[in-house]
């Protein structure tokens, strides 16, 4: 082999070795930076929550600090035997509440799937599809409003909606009470729950609400962390916690014990004047400022309640976080457009481009895993009153 080719080959090998050395050096420096960042962030949060750094909150936003869920209440099983709760559980799982005698509340709020249904939108009476994703019933006792548009102000009021809706349970309310009263076992349950043999729809709704108030999340690893077990979260989850409170701006809407502000926001998924248009809270209030607004969901057990958003649009959390990372300003009107069309939806100014890196998005996702507890799969009644 000529000498010049030998030297060329040696030169190529030298360049390759130098490149590998540089890459390893860069990788080691990057790893060290991440390690140093993790150590400093862990120090910030490995202390009582009252001493944590204040989160990044926009002016005018009223927020509350995170709070851990209480430990398991030893009176839970006693609670489940209360007459109104026991009756409510039977009613919740009983398809007798539907016009077809085939659909129960649990058809969409399944205990096996964190009290939602794992569908983009629910399928109800006569195989009709709904228009909005089924929210989980976990922790509904703490909600201040119900449905994505907040049209119900109490659990009792909420219970009536699905029973009547033609595309859900399609029950003629004038026929429901006679159906129940034809079953002696139900008459006994109502008498035990409310002290009277006569009952009507208000008692049905009270019993359903009593049962639903028992549906609570279990404690997550994050709850243990807040209560002092500072080793229970992984490094990526710690970094995600910090991002959630700072750069990712999540705490503007997701804060407190249940990671929700209980308010309504337009995040840009209105589909105004298109096939999947949904004007959200506007349909309840008729206020132009409410066009496209939906209730902020709780993030408790969020990784168990996919798909996400009011329309069930996202099945992948990385994709959802990328959407937030973009800022979602696609529905904001151009100059003069709002004046000519008062109903043109305006994306909430809290939505901004975040400039999160791919690694940061994965850290944020890891934190959402940390606030998701193991599922509690309640057993359905072995036998219904008949």
Main sheet specs: 2 strands, antiparallel
What gyration radius follows from the Cα positions, in whole Å?
26 Å
Low-confidence spans: none
Return the domain count. 2
| Individual helix count | 13
* Secondary-structure-derived class: mainly alpha
Structure description:
The chain is about 40% helix and about 0% strand. It has helices spanning about 5-45, 75-80, 85-95, 155-165, 175-180, 185-195, 200-210, 220-225, 235-245, 280-285, 315-325, 335-340, 360-370, and strands at about 265, 295. The model has no long low-confidence stretch (mean pLDDT about 90).
Ordered list of secondary-structure elements with their pairings:
Elements: H1 3-45, H2 76-80, H3 83-93, H4 155-164, H5 173-181, H6 184-194, H7 201-212, H8 221-226, H9 235-245, E1 264-265, H10 282-285, E2 294-295, H11 317-326, H12 337-340, H13 358-370
Antiparallel strand pairs: 1-2
Helix pairs in contact: 1-9, 3-6, 3-7, 4-7, 9-13, 11-13
């Amino acid at each position: 082999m000529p000498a010049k080719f030998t030297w060329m080959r040696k030169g190529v090998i030298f360049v390759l070795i130098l490149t590998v050395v540089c890459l390893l050096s860069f990788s080691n420096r990057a790893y060290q930076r991440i390690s140093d960042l993790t150590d400093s962030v862990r120090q910030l949060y490995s202390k009582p929550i009252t001493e944590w750094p204040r989160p990044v909150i926009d002016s005018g936003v009223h927020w509350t600090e995170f709070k851990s869920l209480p430990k398991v209440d030893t009176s839970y099983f006693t609670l489940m035997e209360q007459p109104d709760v026991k009756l409510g559980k039977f009613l919740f799982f009983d398809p007798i509440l539907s016009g077809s005698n085939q659909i129960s509340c649990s058809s969409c709020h399944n205990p096996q799937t964190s009290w939602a249904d794992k569908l983009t939108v629910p399928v109800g009476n006569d195989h009709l599809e709904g228009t909005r994703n089924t929210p989980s019933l976990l922790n509904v006792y703490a909600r201040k409003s119900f449905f994505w548009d907040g049209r119900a102000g109490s659990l009792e009021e909420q219970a009536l909606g699905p029973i009547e809706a033609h595309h859900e349970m399609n029950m003629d309310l004038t026929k429901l009470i006679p159906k129940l009263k034809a079953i002696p076992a139900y008459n006994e349950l109502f008498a035990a729950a409310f002290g009277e043999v006569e009952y009507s729809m208000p008692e049905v709704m009270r019993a359903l609400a009593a049962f639903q108030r028992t549906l609570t999340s279990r404690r997550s690893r994050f709850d243990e962390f807040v209560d002092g077990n500072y080793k229970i979260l992984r490094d990526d989850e710690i970094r995600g916690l910090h991002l959630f409170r700072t750069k990712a701006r999540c705490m503007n809407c997701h804060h407190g014990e249940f990671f929700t502000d209980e308010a309504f926001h337009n995040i840009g998924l209105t589909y105004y004047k298109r096939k999947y248009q949904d004007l959200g809270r506007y349909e309840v209030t008729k206020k132009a400022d409410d066009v496209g607004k939906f209730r902020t969901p709780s993030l408790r057990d969020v990784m168990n309640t996919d798909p996400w958003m009011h329309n069930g649009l996202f099945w992948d959390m990385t994709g959802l976080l990328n959407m937030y990372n973009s800022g979602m300003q696609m529905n904001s009107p151009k100059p003069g457009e709002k004046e000519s069309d008062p109903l043109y939806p305006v994306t909430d100014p809290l939505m901004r481009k975040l400039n999160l890196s791919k690694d940061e998005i994965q850290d944020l996702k890891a934190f959402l895993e940390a606030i998701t507890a193991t599922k509690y799969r309640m057993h359905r009644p072995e036998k219904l009153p008949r």
